[in-house]
Write a structure and sequence with these properties.
This protein has two domains: 186 residues, 3-Layer(aba) Sandwich (Rossmann fold), CATH 3.40.50.300; 100 residues, Magnesium chelatase subunit I, C-Terminal domain (Helicase, Ruva Protein, domain 3), CATH 1.10.8. By secondary structure, it is α/β, with parallel strands linked by helices. The strands form four sheets. The protein has a five-stranded parallel beta sheet with strand order 2-5-8-1-9. Helix 1 runs antiparallel to helix 2 and helix 12 crosses helix 13. The chain contains 15 helices and eleven strands.
């Protein structure tokens, strides 16, 4: 069985358990394939938590969920050194961050010192406690969620941490057909049957790494590299394309955005069954990669301009190959 067939089976596994959220399922697979972390924003009840659980059950690895709250401490994530009175030594007790798939539920409900405990783990795949550094599992992915409806008792993520997320995905309500399917499934489950089909064998870690290698080998022509770089550069200085856009931007995307666009475009093309990337692949993931990496000016925010609108304008004006 090829790696694409394995990922297609994983997608079917997740889609059978998550109805009406095809977009979120695709982004989960892209993040897994591109070796990145995912920030998901959506109203309650949109299956954000269920989606990452479904992904974890389809993979050969450990899963852990952390409910972020205002009284959470950094050691509750990373672990701590425990004193052993019998020999007078300290022993490191790993925290829940030492799992393959980590769900940081409602990450904006914890203070900055707790949020920052994820920074080293997400960027360098390691945790430092005291003088010792402990590596995280080779397959490590964080999916964080946040609720956009409630702002009391929340702590917005700083820009430095937002930049660590490969993609920032906004999840909307399902369409009428999707919601009708959810209704039918809910009724079947209430009667005690009709749930998702029994899961097949989980996807091995080796298959994930092999698929990542295949995605990295996809053809990316030099003209597409130039377009990708020009698009990110335009987030920093869009005035040459349209003077008014220069007044909207306070800070543009970092070089991490260039790397993220490249990895996600390759992953999108690989999942589509192609051996080359195209401008359409970049367009498909541009909003998710760039929306959290652009800081708008106060004037733009006052006028109701959003980063999604900014990305729309750039995609229209930066010439594609």
């Amino acid at each position: 069985m090829s790696q694409r067939q394995r990922f297609a089976r994983l997608k079917e596994h997740i889609a059978a358990r998550i109805l009406g959220q095809e977009y979120l399922v695709d982004r989960l697979l892209i993040a897994l394939l591109a070796d990145g972390h995912l920030l998901v924003e959506g109203a309650p009840g949109l299956a954000k938590t269920t989606a990452v659980k479904a992904l974890a059950t389809g993979l050969e690895g450990d899963f852990h969920r952390i409910q972020f709250t205002p009284d959470l401490l950094p050691a509750d994530l990373t672990g701590t050194e425990v004193f052993r009175p019998q020999d007078g030594s300290f022993h490191f007790q790993p925290g829940p961050i030492f799992h393959n798939i980590l769900l940081a539920d409602e990450i904006n409900r914890a203070p900055a010192k707790v949020q920052s405990a994820l920074l080293e783990a997400m960027e360098e795949q390691q945790v430092t406690i005291g003088r010792e550094t402990y590596p995280l599992p080779p397959l490590f992915m964080v999916m964080a969620t946040q609720n956009p409806l409630e702002h009391e008792g929340t702590y917005p993520l700083p820009e430095a941490q937002l930049d660590r997320f490969l993609m920032y995905v906004r999840v909307g309500y399902p369409d009428a057909a999707g919601e009708k399917a959810i209704l039918a499934l809910g009724r079947a489950l209430a009667r005690g049957g009709g749930g998702a089909p029994e899961a097949g064998p989980p996807l091995p870690e080796a298959a994930v790494f092999a698929a990542r290698g295949e995605a990295l080998e996809l053809t990316m022509v030099p003209a597409l590299d130039d377009y990708l770089v020009a698009l990110v550069a335009a987030t920093r200085d869009p005035a040459p394309y349209e003077p008014v856009l220069g007044e909207w931007v306070r800070w543009g995307a970092s070089p991490r955005a260039t790397l993220a666009l490249d990895r996600c475009a390759r992953a999108h093309a690989w999942l589509a069954g192609r051996d080359y990337a195209s401008p359409e692949d970049i367009h498909a993931i541009a909003h998710d990669v760039l929306r959290h990496r652009i800081l708008l000016s106060f004037e733009a925010e006052a006028e109701g301009i959003t980063t999604d609108r900014m990305v729309d304008e750039l995609l229209k004006r930066v010439p594609a190959p």
